[in-house]
Hints:
Elements: H1 2-16, H2 21-34, H3 44-61, H4 63-69, H5 76-94, H6 99-105, H7 109-127, H8 141-153, H9 161-171, H10 176-200, H11 208-236, H12 239-255
Helix pairs in contact: 1-2, 1-3, 1-11, 2-7, 3-10, 3-11, 5-8, 5-10, 7-9, 7-12, 8-9, 9-10
Amino acid sequence: xxxxxxxxxxxxxxxxxxxxxxxxxxxxxxxxxxxxxxxxxxxxxxxxxxxxxxxxxxxxxxxxxxxxxxxxxxxxxxxxxxxxxxxxxxxxxxxxxxxxxxxxxxxxxxxxxxxxxxxxxxxxxxxxxxxxxxxxxxxxxxxxxxxxxxxxxxxxxxxxxxxxxxxxxxxxxxxxxxxxxxxxxxxxxxxxxxxxxxxxxxxxxxxxxxxxxxxxxxxxxxxxxxxxxxxxxxxxxxxxxxxxxxxxxxxxxxxx
Length: 256
């Protein structure tokens, strides 16, 4: 039960804060192991439920946008947004055949730590780009494809999906909160796909208690993480998250 709560908290916070959820799922147990505390990796069942929790969080937070997208047949703005999201999702789908190579990469915590340092560098540069004023409704196919390509880089554990996509959005002169809005709406098919992959690989005994605990914690912490990120972006940009990734990644590279 405690393991499921810890993983729910890790998944919920790091899925949306630009600090890499996949990286933390590798680095957290590695750090705890160095401290003498052994924590098991989440089972496939728990992993699927954690994805469901974070999916619930982003759907709840952006429920108005999703309601708008549901009117795509009759609303031109909704059709435009839906097209942008579809185009932005395509590059990540192209990376799915690399899944085995990605699994091998994350076997080394030092690899993941190095990738987290790379995320920190991107965030430091990206914070300077978040000065635009464009809204998502003005997005073009070029915007969507560029953000989608940056999202595809986040298939590598340690590279933050939200950090990459928000940085790309800033580079296309979107307002900071609009860049985050695009990032999180793009997260919905990505998170749903990750949960589906876990379900397809599912085997073994399902324990309802840990699964419910992980679901609730990941959903609540994920919702809080979205709100925290949006407030931070409006005030200081990505700099605090850049510093975190650089520090944690450097420590992990040295000690793991």
